Amino acid sequence: MNIIYTDNNATTKVADEVLEEMLPYFGELYGNPSSMHTFGDKVGKKLKQARQRVADFINADPDEIIFTSCGTESDNAAIFSAINAYPEKKHIITSNVEHPAINNLYKHLEKTQGYAVTYVPVDKKGRLNLALLYSSMSDNTAIASFMWANNETGVLFPIADIAKKAREKGILFHTDAVQAAGKLPIDVKANGVDMLSLSGHKIHAPKGIGVLYVKKGFKFSSFLIGGHQEKGRRGGTENTASIIGLGKACELAQKNLPVMNTRVRELRDYLQNQLLEKIPSCSVNGDLEQRLPNTVSIGFDAVEGESILLMLDREGICASSGSACTSGSLDPSHVLMAMEVPFKSAHGSIRFSLSHYNTKDEMDRIITALVPVIQKLRDMSPFWKDGRVV
Ligand SMILES: Cc1ncc(COP(=O)(O)O)c(C=O)c1O
User: Fold this and answer.
1) 202 C-alpha to center of ligand 1: Å?
2) Is 8 touching ligand 1 by the criterion CB < 6 Å?
């Protein structure tokens, strides 16, 4: 059976071009980029090219790029560095819909180090309460950190506006751009961010490679203390093949942005609109305008998201309920709960996240499969009677 993969916010296929670029560095080109000899230096030069490609992708300088092991490490490194830089400031601002890589870290800091964290709420469309956000900024705030795009709903936060306000108040600003990268143009200078996290496996590079952008001038404190790698900001011999793959993935993602914004957006809209038309009692979670072009989260009343996923899986369709990190738990997603999505549809919410590899034929196959799946589950549901929710 042909797999239809619409779970690209969980992870993406490594692009063929990326794999091809990486392969020699698993084989004959195994030198250490820090070595003095020509053999190692050859790898060092390729690493330099990759750093430049990543920097170009987000309009940064190569010196502002630190390679990490994943998005989670980048997020942690940013926050720990901010609180180390301002030990006297004991307040942090974030949203209540962040990824666990941020959320759970803040809970840890509250519990173990006495930090006060303001979790700025979102409204029913997943949009931030900006008045509350701005009024919570104070001289005691060490860092404000907001995701660029939500992994579950695709809803975008106004990063440039928040960064500007933070700058006016002298507060460091970090953004988790793990989901935004490859789907929207990312320009650290135009948006005025101090730190920004990326993850390779969300943009058709392999798993196990991430990036932290740190604006020149900020006194970054090393998260992994060790050798001189990454200019002493992250010890450990570089994951050379993956860094090289990530460099190529950034170059491809930049080229693919127009496709994301046209063809992928059209496919997503087609899927969304057909499902809304053909299936009663379902609705889209999150703002329809300020949203990633590849993502749609739809709540189907009176059915279980997990059951939908299992039945789709039998048809070879890969989608997700909640984020990959919380699926496997039966709790409704913290993002949908924060948006006050009613329980009956939060539980039956499915996320489709597309890539440029998807086709119109695949969208038609999803629609054809999903209509009877929802009908069948509703026929068995105690919350559905005579064509409506009870
Ligand atoms: C918004 C967001 N931040 C951070 C992460 C963590 O990235 P990684 O899996 O590379 O640690 C993810 C992964 O799903 C994410 O969606």
Assistant:
1) 8
2) no
pLDDT digits (tens, 9 = 90+) for 262-281: 999 999 999 999 999 999 99
Q: How many A from CA of 388 to the centre of ligand 1?
A: 37
The residue range of the domain holding 279 is 4-10+257-389
Distance CA 256, CA 265 (A): 12
Q: What total of structural domains would you count in the chain?
A: 2
Q: pLDDT tens for residues 207-240?
A: 999 999 999 999 899 989 999 999 999 999 999 9
What is the Å distance from ligand 1's center to 178 Cα? Answer: 6
Q: Is ligand 1 within 6 A of the CB of residue 153?
A: no
**Could you read off the pLDDT of 374-386 as tens digits, one per residue?**
999 999 999 999 9
At 310-336, the pLDDT tens digits run 999 999 999 998 644 444 556 779 999
Any idea what the CATH number is for the domain that residue 312 is in? 3.90.1150.10
Q: What pLDDT does 323 receive? A: 45
Nearest CA to 94 among 11, 152, 150, 153? 150
Asked if residue 72 has its Cβ within 6 Å of ligand 1, the reply is yes
For range 294-301, the mean pLDDT: 97
Answer yes or no: do 213 and 274 share one domain: no
Q: Choose the residue to mutate in 179, 196, 201 for probing ligand 1, maximizing ligand atoms within 8 Å of C-beta.
A: 179
Q: Which of 151, 320, 333 to mutate to test the pocket of ligand 1 (most atoms within 8 A of CB)?
A: 151
CA–CA separation, 363 and 238 (whole Å):
40
Q: Give the number of other CB atoms < 10 A from CB of residue 67.
A: 26
- Regarding whether 272 and 231 lie in a shared domain, the answer is no
What kind and span of H or E run contains 153? none
Query: DSSP per residue over 336-350, as a string?
Result: HHHTT--HHHHTTEE
